[in-house]
Specification:
three-stranded antiparallel beta sheet, single chain, 10 strands, 11 helices, about 45% helix, Lambda Exonuclease, Chain A, about 280 residues, five-stranded mixed beta sheet, alpha+beta
């Protein structure tokens, strides 16, 4: 899919096609904040599918679609597992299925059992269950930033029937706790996602979103669930951060090659710095 696809709200774009689209996403925004060079490397190199990324993507599919598509292969329970939970590829039973598995994303029976418990925890949570009661999943929102004219895209996991944007976050034990979730949001830049998604949605949709919610579910027993809404200070920070990144990339695109070389990194000038505040106590 090319970046010439029209701006709008699209419900017929697959997850794979969305990620193959040549538009700026939240992940790209975060890379630009590191440096333009980091963003260029991010675009050139394929994303390494770590276990958390694999499981997060698969649980999204399981929760919102109710089933797995043909890109997923469920490993039979009789195939032995390694200590880290991955299937033993040296096992005879696995080798016999190798042709069938091909390049599909694998899911073990043990992982599926965990998914079932996580889903049950979400639907046992009063507020989370209400959010999941009615809505649409995996809606692609394609838009053009009115300031820089950069083509952008966002893809909320869920849009409720009363127009709340929702993003699912699977996380380690304890990270969904109200005591810890703020730091977790900061560490992963979720304030940027909140503001960028809302910005893109409200540019395109007939009516503005009523809010943005994070649905956190922990991946270990007892599978705690939290529904989180960032406050206005966090949203304002996220808006300032994505705007800074868009403006930076817009300037880069409109610069001559000599200027681009400097903009790719941290700049060529000498910078005077101090030590962190704690160093002076």
């Amino acid at each position: 899919m090319s970046k010439s696809i029209r701006d709008g709200i699209h419900k017929d774009i697959s997850n794979a096609a969305y990620h193959a689209n040549d538009r700026l996403s939240t992940s790209g925004i975060k890379k630009i904040r590191e440096s333009i060079a980091d963003f260029e490397l991010y675009k050139e190199k394929p994303t390494i599918q770590t276990t958390p990324l694999r499981l997060g993507s698969l649980f999204d599919m399981y929760l919102f679609d109710g089933e797995f598509d043909d890109s997923v292969f469920l490993i039979p329970p009789e195939i032995p597992l390694n200590k880290d939970g991955s299937p033993k590829k040296s096992a005879k039973a696995y080798k016999e299925l190798a042709g069938e598995i091909g390049d599909k994303t694998i899911l073990t029976a043990q992982e599926l059992a965990t998914f079932q418990k996580m889903k049950s925890a979400i639907y046992s949570h009063k507020r989370a269950a209400a959010i999941m009661a009615e809505g649409e999943s995996q809606t692609s929102i394609l838009f053009t930033d009115p300031v820089t004219r950069i083509k952008c895209q966002v893809r909320p996991d869920w849009i409720t029937s009363n127009n709340f944007l929702v993003d699912l976050k699977t996380c380690p034990k304890g990270k969904a706790s109200p005591r810890n979730v703020g730091r977790h949001c900061h560490d992963f830049g979720y304030q940027i996602q909140d503001s960028f998604y809302t910005f893109g949605h409200d540019l395109i949709a007939d009516a503005p979103a009523n809010g943005f919610l994070f649905l956190f579910v922990e991946k270990e027993e007892p599978f705690h669930v939290s529904v989180i809404e960032l406050d206005e200070d966090a949203k304002s920070l996220g808006a300032a951060q994505f705007r800074q990144a868009l403006d930076k990339y817009g300037l880069f695109q409109n610069s001559v090659e000599e200027q681009k070389e400097e903009l790719r990194g941290y700049g060529h000038d000498i910078k005077t710095i101090s030590l962190p505040g704690y160093a002076f106590f």
